[in-house]
Predict the structure.
Amino acid sequence: MRRLEKTRRVVQVLVLLFFLGVLASAIGPRRFAVSPHLFLQLDPLVALNVLLSGQGLGFAVALGIVLFALPVIVLGLLTERALCGWLCPLGTVIDMSDRLFGARRAKRIVSVPWLKYCALAVVLVGAAAGLSLVFLVDPIVLLTRSLTLAAVPAGQAVVKRLADLPGVGPGFSFSAYAGAPQFVYRNSVVALVLLGGVLGLSAMGRRFWCRNACPLGALLGLLPRWAVLRLRFEENCTGCGACAKACKMEAITAGENPSYNARECISCYTCVAKCPEAAIGIGLGGTRERRSTQLNVSRRRLLQGSAIGIGWALLGKLEVASARAESGATLGSPHLLRPPGSVPEHEFVKRCVRCAECIKVCPNGALQPALSEAGMSGFWTPVLVPHINYCTEACNSCGNACPTHAIEQFTIKEKKWLFIGTAVIDRSRCITWNAEKVCLVCDEQCTYKAVYWDVVDGRRRPFVNDQVCVGCGICEKKCPVGPEAAIRVFSFGDKRDMPRAEQKKFRKSARPLGKDYTLPPID
């Protein structure tokens, strides 16, 4: 049976390497054959969160979300939380940190297994009430976001150094990645500290996060009641307690007749390998008195978690209502620019799980995690920040990378009528307007040809055609005026509430303005 434990460790390492490979697959010019958000699609907690909070998903989209998560659910019905013990990449990293922090030798400081069920209640009730909170505690989302915001910029810096070495640069396979602007993401330190805090909990005991705080583990813990493969305690068990001591989840109760809680067992089978009498096995059934499926949480705790989820959702809605009352709009900031293809704002904050997949695949590093632009309900959702970089016209990676359809897929051609904002010229800062100088930068750089010229007071002045400008931000990025550009993109040009057909119709209705201005075609 020791071979089984070694097999599990090999599988854990291979899955972790595969996870890192999938994570890196969308960064450089090369692509893996698998989806860049495969692990997020397989996550049943993410799927359930989207189904509860999302509206207007459509039957086909909802069915696709369910089918991707179904294999993990089936696995949970066959085994006792094998995903946690064998396949979860964060669980593998936690096992490594357990060794680093000496958790095997650490005394148990505190054990609160009910906490993960409360966290699950907060996430699911909050989602049903209209607010996505899964980004705070889901292990796959947490690990993906932390590595994206912190490790991707560091990895790119290393690639750039390697590409600069003599004889390496010209044939370097990631030369396109090395030639891209250096990515710098806001909140990367916070994301890294959050991941470090989860790993640092190992100082308080083995698999502390998994035992006490992981809502995905709590969700999977609801399935083992019907698990097919179970632990079996044979008659030659001496009650020595070696299995309970070896169990990293504290699922086994020591005694003359030891028993275990199936909802806490992660099928790591360490107890099987450590039993000196080989008295623990795996079978299709087990002695009933040796197996428990009791939930380690009271009804009162679940009600408390539900109340927190509802309260958080209500606060988010009150914030949006306040913004609407003050400005007549639901947007929290005039510079809240969402990626092209995003669904309407009220739906976007429900579907988005803040996994940072769209941020990772943006070739210019223009997408950033939101700070205060979207308010409390939109914290860490992706926003376009033009002064950092612009949205490239020939790119639709964000729509292909989003696992929850908060950003719906779109074609390059469709970007000509996916309005995310409108550029506005500040005449008090523009040197063509206030200094009588000649500057053509915004006109020359605009790939959508939204800038036109007209004669005012005897001189040619630049204007923006708001029926052509989609808000990509290239004009703001390239404007030579500083520190704040003389042309900036504002979110009041956002037309995501309109169906794509209506946005296209709006674009087609654009009129040629100014002298010698030719309206660019869209077909």
Observations:
- The chain is about 45% helix and 10% strand.
